[in-house]
Amino acid sequence: MAEQPWVLHPDRALPTEPGQRSIAREIYASTAALPIVSMHGHIEPGAIRRNDAFGDPAELFIIPDHYLVRMLVSQGYRNSDLGVQPHQGDAPVETDHRLIWRRFAENWKLFRGTPTRYWMEHELSVVFGITQEPSAATADAIYDQLSASLSTPEFRIRALFDRFNIEILSTTDAPDSDLAEHAALADQGWGERVVPTFRPDGVFYPDRVTWRAAVRALGARCGREIVSYQGFLDALQERRFAFVAAGARATDHGHLTANTTPLAAADAERIFQQALSGPVDAASAEAFAGNMLFESARMSVEDGLVMQLHPGVARDHSAAIQQGYGADNGFDIPVAVDFTRGLQPLLNAFGLDPRFRLILFTIDETVYSRELAPIAGAYPSVRLGAPWWFLDSPAGMARFRELVTETAGFYNTSGFVDDTRAFASIPARHDLSRRVDAGYLARLVGEHRLTLDEATETAIDLAYTLPLTAYARRGAVTPAATPARAEAESAAQ
Amino acid sequence: MAEQPWVLHPDRALPTEPGQRSIAREIYASTAALPIVSMHGHIEPGAIRRNDAFGDPAELFIIPDHYLVRMLVSQGYRNSDLGVQPHQGDAPVETDHRLIWRRFAENWKLFRGTPTRYWMEHELSVVFGITQEPSAATADAIYDQLSASLSTPEFRIRALFDRFNIEILSTTDAPDSDLAEHAALADQGWGERVVPTFRPDGVFYPDRVTWRAAVRALGARCGREIVSYQGFLDALQERRFAFVAAGARATDHGHLTANTTPLAAADAERIFQQALSGPVDAASAEAFAGNMLFESARMSVEDGLVMQLHPGVARDHSAAIQQGYGADNGFDIPVAVDFTRGLQPLLNAFGLDPRFRLILFTIDETVYSRELAPIAGAYPSVRLGAPWWFLDSPAGMARFRELVTETAGFYNTSGFVDDTRAFASIPARHDLSRRVDAGYLARLVGEHRLTLDEATETAIDLAYTLPLTAYARRGAVTPAATPARAEAESAAQ
Amino acid sequence: MAEQPWVLHPDRALPTEPGQRSIAREIYASTAALPIVSMHGHIEPGAIRRNDAFGDPAELFIIPDHYLVRMLVSQGYRNSDLGVQPHQGDAPVETDHRLIWRRFAENWKLFRGTPTRYWMEHELSVVFGITQEPSAATADAIYDQLSASLSTPEFRIRALFDRFNIEILSTTDAPDSDLAEHAALADQGWGERVVPTFRPDGVFYPDRVTWRAAVRALGARCGREIVSYQGFLDALQERRFAFVAAGARATDHGHLTANTTPLAAADAERIFQQALSGPVDAASAEAFAGNMLFESARMSVEDGLVMQLHPGVARDHSAAIQQGYGADNGFDIPVAVDFTRGLQPLLNAFGLDPRFRLILFTIDETVYSRELAPIAGAYPSVRLGAPWWFLDSPAGMARFRELVTETAGFYNTSGFVDDTRAFASIPARHDLSRRVDAGYLARLVGEHRLTLDEATETAIDLAYTLPLTAYARRGAVTPAATPARAEAESAAQ
């Protein structure tokens, strides 16, 4: 293998049966070159504004990639061995980036069967032209070749942005963000290509140690101190309008549960005051956070921001990792979620409102057929986001289609949404999604349940049209008007 | 596509791999023409007695079909836009049925990948001979052709009953039903072809606003007022015997949970009296309903009626839809169910009794391998019903077989059971089930785990024999005597 | 079929698509003849020490096999009809073993699609050279042929042990076991081939009727009465060291939940004293058992025993069966398990410790992708055991790989672990596992996601290397040193 040049097979991740593969190939051919719509990213807008370079291979591929670091940690490395900076403790962080890269390359076999393997192959081969498989023997040569590329203008972020054919990319921004980077991007003519997303989790969970500082920062951004729950709501609304003005399409909410029960204003105020002055118990914090989801939906009806919700993760499962490395360092473990009962208050209030759009994500696959598809197949406001996090994988995406489509169809889903911090992996992820959807659609064609024309149209919608329309700000941009939608809009008057 | 005549492929929904397809085709050939056994229907017996015509295409295909209306609602239509009559509110109901049909045809793409698409294709092409795919362009022509057919005697219900080769069809009947339609059908010689099913949910949940009226009606049917819990039990028993006399095979129970904990008689009486005189809280109502499942099982041991249970649906998730259109209008959303603990009281009391038969349905697929297959693979009274509701779909049925068979085998399942209000879809649903089972069995043959002869025999059992024997009233009709059964029966003396 | 000799197809259980089958065949060829590593068995060590014969066909194949008896019971037989000895009640146990065999053979069709069918075909055809399929017609002839074989030296346990190529087999032993059989086996030179496993469930659940006797026996083995919680911990630790000295690799824990919350010593002492003197409620017992898992992990860090946990079974679901036949007689029904929250205390304390190894099993498949793969893909101490119990089946094993690999990879799993009481089924189970893994890996090769060389290496690891290394006692035997491991070990100094 190492002797032959390492070229990715053009049919990778397509079905193996020759008849199916042939159909899938035709479908994929119609989506492979479509622009990328990336509505849920975690790229720093400043990096794009400055047109940053990506540093060395460890800085690009390993240190910031949770998926990759996590796997090596699961086999005995410490985060610090891989260059992840500890917040406290005496573990010396590894500073030899070539050694970090070598540790990865030597352990290439650990990634067999994982999406990380697929993405890395795509990045190394397609993006960087590497012709050798990573291994102990090839680690240094690959490192050198990558380093050489990374020092050229062709591998700065804007050049890759163009080469990847990214039409629009959303960033993730705290409510107190001044949005200055986005304003600067707009001045540079990039305002339509890079848009902010309003992510208020930091001020929704009053039991987090960072909550008071986050509320203070929110108030400071609005030019006043926040001393009441109503003042808090006012500040959020004000910032949401600022985000809308800066081009935002959506808000984003990562919660422990799907609870959306509104609180009486007095109860919300009581918890808010308690949190301002001291500790809040977890149950009160969870109740407050659920109330804030309800309030966020209410605000979305007003300002048209699409609401994204991805609940069900017990963050920082390992106290030692959290203490050593800070929050969200690879030890976030999913839990079961009750969407049916959790979302009922919110959907009862806003679920039928044509001004509202809710996009749901999960890592608990048990809700796909039991809860999410029935909910999205009934409430006109709801769309199902793409398979999230660990499920953004070949089999994970195939299961999503299989478990959701029969009840919700294709058109109650959002199309593909990547959720990555790893810029260079964006085209790999979209490419994989297009291949998996082509395989799923090929099966429907092969079973004579769809024509090839229908399958091709659907594939294009999933890859391109649906993400654009699902994330179109309600009332602002009109989603591609279908007869159904036109009816609904006029019916809602 | 529109230019060519629209003919369904004979191999639709069979496996795509040529070797597998060839085996599946052989298996399917042995079941395709078998009579239909439809033990869980929702057709009005009066419609059969009167030999009704079906009205216009919107009245046959759209307005009464929850699956279909729900999908259009999920994309922005209101129920009333599709001819569904609101109970209250000012939404004017659409009365132009041609327009309703057009709304459906224009949105044909929404149904891609859904069972509704498969069923509709079958109904339009096979049952009605339509040669065009629905679309905005073809809507009117198809409407006219369907209307012309529907006005002929060949498309009245009894002619279709014969043409569909329905051997037996169960209806669903309230406990206070006078069963007059069934008596009239019996007079017409249709008593063996159309049988009632005893469905007492309406009197089991004392927190429903309709509960007191339902109990009053039950008493009235028995010629006395029901003033006590014991009187309630007596009335139920009396009506069950009336149902048995009218040919009933089974009872049917749709509950929120699988709880079957019996109450002390005094506790049941207390809740019953409270409900007669005023409101009952949800916890008491759920306890009462669970107790009534236990009591129903006890009665089944006596009268031999097969007990069907399908729990796990939060009905009327949207208060606005319930208030506007009444109960069960497309916004029933499933929840997780604990069968293992819920059924334990009932199974401890009756689960080993050869006079008892319990058929379990679920929309919570997580229990297939974890709970249902182990329960059915141990308790001789239990059979697993076919995939229910949203799961009555190609992939849903395939997952059922895959998740259940290895632990419970084929012979602890009920064979195919449709659950439809849409009469014209009955043959489509049975046909699809036979194709999916043929595909599943073909794989076992292809993997050399079954011979083709065994697979064919199994397919026939799943399509025809098992539904007949699973729904044979215990003690009345003897299920096809197997050595095991004969042993068990004599052992139970 | 009955006319032709009954020969198993060499490609059974491999993928059906010709291209996939061809790749799978190549991969399987590299694992088919590997030695068997059986780290979780339930064979009596005395039977091996004495080199027992297996009795008659009913005694070998039917009476002790829960899977098989259970299926016949689910269709109406009583346990006693199949030779299972009732503990009480008046059901006469069937003593005619030829008749018992005939009952099984006549009901061969019930096992279609089940792993029991696959294993039995393998045992009858490959191990015993039977050339007829079981049926009413062939039952007696097969019985006679099996009986004849079973009376020869070639079918005694040690001859089969050699013929099956079992390299190492773990037994399951109570903490009060004197380990005399293992000592005798060591004297015979079999000490490395048959090792004990420490299974303390009997003394961990103080609400079991057998608990006091089990604690008494544990004390007696240590030569003293256990009168305090600390004395109890001391005795456990003492016995664990005795097991280590006898060659044990692991402990084994079957619990109702995954709760691992430690108790304050005073609380544990209080429950312990209460249990010594009288009944303990279920909640206290569960709290005590959870505490003991935590304590067991702590002890594992000291003595290096690998900790196995398989939670989530409601044992003895049927009171009648438990009363009639004793515990664990086929009516153990799984329930949902929360591993994420349950394991958090244990993993926070020991999950990052390189001296600790935890292998997790489940019958609740919903946790594969949601909880187990993320946990094993992060904590270096955790490996995922093979699909357990009902899931030790073709589709069950395929789902495990599909749902786990993308997040945890192959190398955070334990490789294949059988869990059988049926000695003759051991090679059938390992063979099936190797075929299923070959099929899974063939798909990755077919999708151009792995090379054939990588797939073959992975298959060998799953079948042979990983079970050996996953069950290597920590600190004692060094697992095959990977660079990652070496780093981790030195980093942990």
UniProtKB/TrEMBL annotation, chains A, B, C:
Pfam families xrefs: UxaC
Class in the EC hierarchy, top level: isomerase
EC number: 5.3.1.12
Pathway connected to this protein: Carbohydrate metabolism; pentose and glucuronate interconversion
Coiled-coil intervals, chain numbering: none
UniProt keyword list: Isomerase
Keyword field contains Isomerase: yes
GO molecular function: glucuronate isomerase activity
NCBIfam families to which the protein is assigned, alphabetical: PRK02925.1
Family the entry assigns: Belongs to the metallo-dependent hydrolases superfamily. Uronate isomerase family.
Protein name: Uronate isomerase
Organism (species): Cryobacterium glaciale
Name of the gene this protein is made from: uxaC
